[in-house]
Amino acid sequence: MTERIHAKYWLETGTDPRAAADAIAGEQSSGTFVALPGETRELKERSGARVERLEILGQTYKPSLPGGMRSNFYTQCELELSWPIENMGPSLPNLMSTIAGNLFELRQVSGLRLTGLRLPPSFAAAYPGPAFGIEGTRRMAGVEHGPIIGTIIKPSVGLAPEATAEHVRELVAGGIDFIKDDELQGDGPHCPFDERVRAVMRVVNEHAERTGKKVMVAFNLTGELDQMRRRHDLVLEEGGTCVMAVLNSVGLVGLHELRRHSQLPIHAHRAGWGYLSRSPHLGWDYAPWQQIWRLLGADHLHVNGLANKFSESDESVIAAARAVLSPVMPEAPLPAMPVFSSGQTGLQAAPTFAAIRCTDLIHTAGGGIFGHPGGIAAGVDAMRQAWIAAMEGVPLERHAKHHPALQDALRFWK
Amino acid sequence: MTERIHAKYWLETGTDPRAAADAIAGEQSSGTFVALPGETRELKERSGARVERLEILGQTYKPSLPGGMRSNFYTQCELELSWPIENMGPSLPNLMSTIAGNLFELRQVSGLRLTGLRLPPSFAAAYPGPAFGIEGTRRMAGVEHGPIIGTIIKPSVGLAPEATAEHVRELVAGGIDFIKDDELQGDGPHCPFDERVRAVMRVVNEHAERTGKKVMVAFNLTGELDQMRRRHDLVLEEGGTCVMAVLNSVGLVGLHELRRHSQLPIHAHRAGWGYLSRSPHLGWDYAPWQQIWRLLGADHLHVNGLANKFSESDESVIAAARAVLSPVMPEAPLPAMPVFSSGQTGLQAAPTFAAIRCTDLIHTAGGGIFGHPGGIAAGVDAMRQAWIAAMEGVPLERHAKHHPALQDALRFWK
C-alpha cells in the first residue's frame, strides 16, 4: 500500500462542505476549476487527494474572511485530507506547496487553518532531524537535570561587541545556563558578528576554565548561506556551543543547508510567527509547522511562554510546547527542546511544569532575573528554586521560606 | 547621513495609537517590554526605530484580531517606521526579522499588515536582482512585442513524463509561447523531474528546429538546494530556457542560492500567498513582499488575474501587477515580469491592459485555450487577437469580425 500524507484543517465555507472539501482536494492534486479531459478516473484514483474525514462543527452568518462566495450562512468543519506520497516524493518544499499552497485563496473558503499533519516514515528517511535535540543540548550546556535557565541579551540591538561581552560577563558570573542573541541582532556594522562572538566567547571560555561550566550562547547567524556557514565555523572555532537562526527569515532550504553544515545545536527562532497564526481563521497551528522544522533539524523551538506579554493564550502556548515534545512520527520521534520566553519569571515554573510534566526545556527570563534586588546570581537562583518547588509540588511561598533569593524574588515577580 | 529602511503598516490598536507605534518601534529595535538600564538615550537615538508617520484612519468597536488588549474602541491607522541600516546591514533575512518579526503578536496590536517597504541602495548593491527580467525573458522566449501567451500543464499531477510531453506537443504545435509545470508537480515517482524534462524538451527542441521558435517551459525544480542545482543543470543541458521555484517552499536562502547558480530565468510561484494575505487585518500586501524576491532574483512573479477563480479582488490583482512593474528603488529598478493566471481568457486582455498600460507580462490560460472549438492553435490565436484589440483600443466584438478564431472564442469565453 502506498504511503499517504495526512493534513487536518479547520475549514469555513459558504458552500456545501462536501463540495468545498472536494474542491480543495481537487485543486491541491489532479484537478482544477474545470473538468479536464486528461483527468481520467484511473489518474484521479491514483493521484487525487482524498477527503478522509469531514466533521461539521457549527455555522455562522458572517464569513470570517472576505472575498469568498456569498451565502446566507457559513459552515465550519474539521477536514482531513490525504495525498499519496507519489505526488511529491518525500520533499518538504514540495510538501509545503501541497498542504499549504493555493488552497487558502479558494472562493469556497471563508476560513482555513492547517491544524495537523501526519507524515509517513519516508520523510524521516529523507531528512536528518535534530542533531542534538534534548539529550545533546543537555550535554553541551552541562545541565543534566531540570530546566535550562536562560536569558536574552538586551538591548536587542545597539550594544557594541565589548558592551555585549561585559553584559555576558555578569550573566555567566550569575550562574546562568543559556544566553541568546536577540533575533534582531545579526551582523550589523555596530555589532559585527565576528567581533561579538570573539568578545563573548573570551568571557565564556574564561569562565569555563575557571569553573568547569561552559554557558551555552546561541549566536544569531541568520543570513545568506555562505554567511551562515562562515559564522557557524567561527562560533565552533571559538569554542561556542550553539547557533541560532530565524526560521521565517532563512526558509526551508536555509535551515536544511545549515543543518547539513552545522556541528552545533540549532536554536530555532520563530519571529514572524504572528503573521502565520494570529488570525484564528487563517494560516497555521504550531503543531504541523514545527514538525517541518524538526525534520529539517531544529534542536530548540520557541513556543512563547505562559502569561506572556504577547497576545497568545496560555492554551495555545501549552499546545505548542506539547507539540514540540511529541514525536514527529512513531517511527522517528526527533526530539527537540521547547524554549519558553516573553515576560517569564519563576511564577511560570509550576504552571509550565503542570502543563508539560517534564523539564526538558529552556526557560528564558529577562526582567525576571535582572530585576532581582540581590543581583543576577540571586535572580538565577530564584528561577532554579522556583523550578525545584514546581517539580516537588511545593507551593512557592513555602519553598521560599528556606530560600532567601526566592523570597526576595516573590516580592517583585508579578 | 545613515541609510534608513522605511516600512509602512496598517495598524489597529486598542491603546493610544502613539503608544502602540512606540511599542512596535521599541520591540523591533533597541527596546523591550520593560525599561532597560543599557538602553541609554544615545543608544536609542542611534539604534531605535523611528515613528515617521502616524495617520488615524478611523475607529471600530470590535477588534479585528483576538488576543490583544481590551478596549472600548480600536483605532485604525497608517504607520510608517524607519530603522537605521546599521541595525542589520543590507541582509534580507535579517530585514525580515526586523520588519516582519515579533510585532504581529503584540498585545497592543489587534490588526497589523505590512503595506509598503522602501529600501536604501545598499540592498541593491548586496543582492543581484533578476538576471533576465523582462528583456531577457522576451529574448529567451522569442517574443519581442506584446504579451507572452502561456498555459499550465493539467492535470497538475498524475501524468507520466510521456503523457506530459504529448500534451506539450499539442501546445507547441498550437503556437503557444510559454508553458509551466503546475506548482504541485515536482519530482514525484510518477513523474520524475529528469524524465519529464527530457521528454518535454525533446518535443520543444524538435519544434524549435522545425520552426525556429523555442517555446519557454518553466520546469518546477522546487526542492532542496542540491536537487535544485542538479535539476537546473539538466534543464540547461537539455536546452530548456526557464526554471520555476515556489517561493514560500524554498524560502529566502533557497531563492538566493538558486539565483547564484542559475543561468536561466526564474519563474517565481507564490503558492501559499493566501496564508500570508487573505486576512485584511494581518500579514502582507504584495507590494513589499515581491520587492524582497525581486532583489533575490525572481524574473517572473505571479499576480493572479482579473476576474480570477480565487477570492482576490481585481483591485488587489492590479495593485500587485503594478508593484511588480514598478522599480524596486529609483537607483535599481530590477524589472520583473508579472504572470497573470487563474480562469483567464481573452476577455481579460483589455481590462488588464487598461490597468497596467503595457504588455510586459505572461498571460496564462487553460480552459480559455483548450476549450476553443477550433483546437489549441485557434485558442492561442484568439488570445493573441484579444490582446491586439486591447492594445489598439478596439472592442473585442468589432475586432472579431475579421478574426474567426476570436469570433468563435467569444462564444465560449465567459
UniProtKB/TrEMBL annotation, chains A, B:
Protein's UniProt name: Ribulose 1,5-bisphosphate carboxylase
Highest taxon above the source species: Bacteria
Co-factor(s): Mg(2+)
Domain Ribulose bisphosphate carboxylase large subunit C-terminal: start-end pairs: 133-413
Keyword Zinc-finger on entry: no
Record GO biological process: carbon fixation
Cytoplasm listed as a keyword: no
GO MF: magnesium ion binding; ribulose-bisphosphate carboxylase activity
Keywords attached to this entry: Magnesium, Metal-binding
Family from the record: Belongs to the RuBisCO large chain family.
Domain Ribulose bisphosphate carboxylase large subunit ferrodoxin-like N-terminal: 13-122
A Pfam family per the record: RuBisCO_large
